[in-house]
Amino acid sequence: MSRAARAIIDTRALQHNLRRIRELAPGRRVMAVIKANAYGHGIVPVARALAAADAFAVACTDEALAVRAAGLPNRIVLLEGVFSADELAVAARENLEVVVHSPEQLAWLAAFHGGTVDVWLKIDTGMNRLGFRVEDTRAAWQRLQELPAVRKPVRLMTHLANADDPDGTRTAEQLARFTAVTRDLPGERSIANSAGTLAWPESHADWVRPGLALYGVSPFAGRTGADEGLVPAMTMLTELHAVKTVRRGESVGYGGSWTAAQDTRIGVAAIGYGDGYPRHAGNGTPVLVNGQRVSLVGRVSMDMITVELGAQPQAKVGDPVELWGAALPVEQIAAAAGTVPYELLCGVTQRVRFEVR
Ligand SMILES: *Cc1c(COP(=O)(O)O)cnc(C)c1O
Asked: What pTM was estimated for this model as a whole?
């Protein structure tokens, strides 16, 4: 028998979340972000489940080709554009829309004569990662107008750095810069990631670009997907592989980082950082055994974690264990591990069995 660690992917939850996003951004188009293997959920099953999205967005041509190989004809946007001049031929052939964020990418397009591509001009309004600076935007836009390989109209986009902070001033500043520099330009616009879609209606523009929210997870600290009307799409499960008693004063696991204050029952669950469970999850991180919350105790190891079975004294080998998902928000596990839910979802490893339902 194989190990019990598995990730259940709920396609109905994905579809619910897409509908919820349409409800939040009525009349706008949805570019479903499925980069990084659909945030660890599996790019092909997720793309199939979300085929009703108006477009997909990915980080590179390999991801786009995986969607095409599955026979899906949807529009696909390469969020970082091409990584080399020769990828433009792939983009033209596979009908991939390319973001153009740099002078190098402009030069590659100028030298490309193998067809035409749709282009999104990326403007850096304050993230200071990818994109043309505001003062360079008009010249870049003008250059694109002159290039025969570029289909017109060119579309316009930017990316928000602080949209998960609903009280801050930076998002409003970014929106103002974007509006000012694009004011008289034709073409569709896209600004909002999940946090923008959920918290900043003024960022919705023509296209919203949610990733995390599609997977049923909240981008806001201290909130969960359920707070946003979303349903988690991934549930990480395993089973108890051993149950034992430890005596008061005995410690558990590598380094003995947790010591029993009284005689207690310990469950050993078959999941560890080799599966993508975060090694930095500390004592007290919640885990569900038979649907009830118990606490992680001791260090996370590669193949196993240990939990104190306080609320589940009768628990036995083979009993179900949920690490995160439908009944235990991944946001809480991320907080307990000092990271973000994005990293946990993306970090589930090949060893975990995926079941798409
Ligand atoms: C990843 C990404 C998104 C989606 O971000 P979420 O926070 O997951 O919604 C949107 N736009 C760009 C440019 C991205 O790189």
From this structure: 0.97
